[in-house]
Amino acid sequence: MSILDESIARLDGTPGTLRDLTAGQPALLVNVASKCGLTPQYAKLEQLEKDYADNGFTVVGFPCNQFNGQEPGSADEIAQFCSATYGVTFPLSEKVEVNGAGRHPIYRALIGDGADIEWNFAKFLIDADGNVVARFGSRTEPDAPEVVTAIQQVIA
Questions:
Q1: Known catalytic membership, residue 64
Q2: In this prediction, what percent of the chain has a pLDDT beyond 70?
Q3: Looking at 28, 29, 36, 126, which residue is catalytic?
Q4: Which residues are named in the active-site annotation (predicted)?
Q5: Residue 59 forms beta bridges with which residues?
Q6: How far apart (Å, rounded) are the C-alpha atoms in residues 95 and 104?
Q7: Pairing mode, if any, of strands 132-136 and 58-63?
Q8: Are the beta carbons of 111 and 104 closer than 8 angstroms?
C-alpha cells in the first residue's frame, strides 16, 4: 500500500485518502499550527501553492496540537484563521499527531526510521507516487532555495 492510500479526513471532516488531498501529484506536506512563532510560514506556503499549482503541485497542511498546544482550535476555527489571515487555498487535513504512540499512519510512513518531528512546520516533499523526496526542518522557510529547487526537480 502506498502512503497515498492512507486514510485521512479533510479539515471539514470529509473522509478520504492522502491521494485525495494531493490530487495524486507531488506535494509538500507540512504539520501546521495557528499560534506558533512560525505561523507566518502559511503565507509562503500559499505562495508556493499559487506558483506551482499549474505545474501539478500542491501543499497540504496537517494541523497538529502536539507542540505546546499551538493548534488548540476547532476545525472551523482553524479554517477561518487560515482563510482570513493568510488566504490559504491549499488543502488542510483533520488535526493529527505527528509523534508518539498516536502518530498518524501518514507520518509513520513519512518518518520511517528517521527522527521525530521537532516542531511545527516540518516539511516533507513527496513525488506523485508518494515517495519522500526531501525533508526540511521547521525553520527552513518554504521559499528557501533548497525547497524551491527540490520542488522544481520533482515537478520537472
A1: no
A2: 100
A3: 36
A4: 36
A5: 28
A6: 10
A7: unpaired
A8: no
Question: For position 92, which CATH number holds?
Answer: 3.40.30.10
Domain with 141 in it: 3-155
Supply 28's cell numbers. 509538500
pTM for this entry: 0.97
User: Tell me: the pLDDT tens digits for 37-58?
Assistant: 999 999 999 999 999 999 999 9
Residue 16 · residue 7 · CB < 8 Å: yes
The span from the CA of 142 to the CA of 138, in Å, is 9
Name the domain count of the chain.
1
- Note whether 90 and 61 are within 8 A (CB): yes
Location of C-alpha cell 506556503 = 45
What backbone phi and psi angles, to 5 degrees, belong to 17?
-130, 170
Contact between 83 and 23 under an 8 Å Cβ cutoff? The reply is no
Asked if 39 and 33 count as a contact pair (C-beta separation under 8 A), the reply is yes
**Residue whose cell numbers read 472551523:** 76
pLDDT tens per residue across span 63-88? 999 999 999 999 999 999 999 999 99
**Interacting residues of 35 by C-beta distance below 8 A, sequence separation 6+:** 69, 70, 71, 72
Query: Strand pairing partners for 10?
Result: 93
